[in-house]
Amino acid sequence: ATPTARRVDRIQPSPSTAAAQRVRELKADGHEILDLTVGEPDFDTPEHIKLAAIEAIDRGETKYTPVNGTPELREAIAAKLAQRHGAHYSHARIAVGGGAKQVIFLALMATVDTGDEVIVPAPYWVSYPDMVLANDGTPVVVECGEDNGFKLTAQQLESAITARTRWLILNAPSNPTGAAYTEAELRSLADVLLAHPHVRVLTDEIYDEIWYGTGLAPTLVGVEPRLQDRVLVTNGVSKTYAMTGWRIGYGAGPADLIGAINKLQSQISSCPSSVSQAAAVAALTGKQDFIAEMVETYRGRRDELLRALDGVPGISCTTPQGGFYLFVNCTGLLGRRTPQGAEISTDEEFCRYLLESQQVAVIHGAAYGSPGHFRISFATSNAVLREAAARVARACAELS
Ligand code: PLP
Q1: What's the CA gap between 256 and 358, in Å, rounded?
Q2: Recorded GO terms, molecular function (predicted)?
Q3: For the domain 47-285, what is the CATH code?
Q4: Which among 38, 130, 170, 175 is the best mutation to test ligand 1's pocket, defined by most ligand atoms within 8 Å of the CB?
Q5: Which atom of ligand 1 has the smallest separation from the CA of 171?
Q6: CA of 344 to the centre of ligand 1 (A)
Q7: Full-prediction pTM beyond 0.90?
């Protein structure tokens, strides 16, 4: 018998964390790696946010806070939710945790019993299936075709729902594809959901402001307010405000669920960091103009990367509508041989070849439930991206 519990044996360490670790090791060995695995903004946390944290420390805000966050932070979150979804959330319907990741985990822990099913559209963020498994649930992975922009259709949703379905997890803009649902697409999903009142929806909206479309990205609650009591909106400050290390995320949903999340949190971490909460208040209520600048920078990189990879034999890209990742189809390369004569038969083998022959690190699509692809993060400088794109093109051209 292993010394660990079955729930630990069932799950994998996060593949993105593992990839980052591999890059660190190679760098430590003296290799110069172009790292396109990064899942966080390359911008610094804005000055006024850092200052707010320092001021909070100076005021002595260094103690436990309420389990569900300070009233100031919940107020700031409620204001953002009202603007984003056109919906009112009282303080009792908002939970604050150590990152959206913790809130999502706690939501599953609070609701999933052995054998309960959670619908996870693929390509998915690497953590969802393992979080479900860690909480004794069964992930029901639904493959979403590239021909439909990697998005779940109403029909697919209808056929995936069973009497045991607890949740549908909907992440838009998506990591890894950048796909987002139109209002009409959300409407058709909402119609299916209205017919199955036992299913709740966890919307992961962490990339909502890193958005290349016009206006705001549509949301499920915005499109169908009758679902408000069945949706847990999750979001945080990590990506929008370049605050990944501060670890503040939140969930907004039905009061019973939020109460259960808070009950668990009271036994797990007592509360999120007081100093980070003060910083998050400044982030949400302070000036927002740098977000648009940041998004324009990402957009420029996205477009340049798409141009550089356009026409490279064996690969093709779908234009991301949000987020800072490009999910590249590499099925055209499978079956080809490296200059050393090794056959590339999977996306993982291509990624290893890319790392070893060109020192470019990306993450293979199978990690996201979508073999035949790889993910490039463009949260890095234009110079690195330009060089990396040239090397990807060279790696592809050298296959025969
Ligand atoms: N959800 C998605 C889709 C993500 O890509 C990430 C971070 O990579 C998270 C949630 C976690 O965000 P947080 O830093 O708030 O835990």
Answers
A1: 52
A2: pyridoxal phosphate binding; transaminase activity
A3: 3.40.640.10
A4: 175
A5: 3
A6: 31
A7: yes
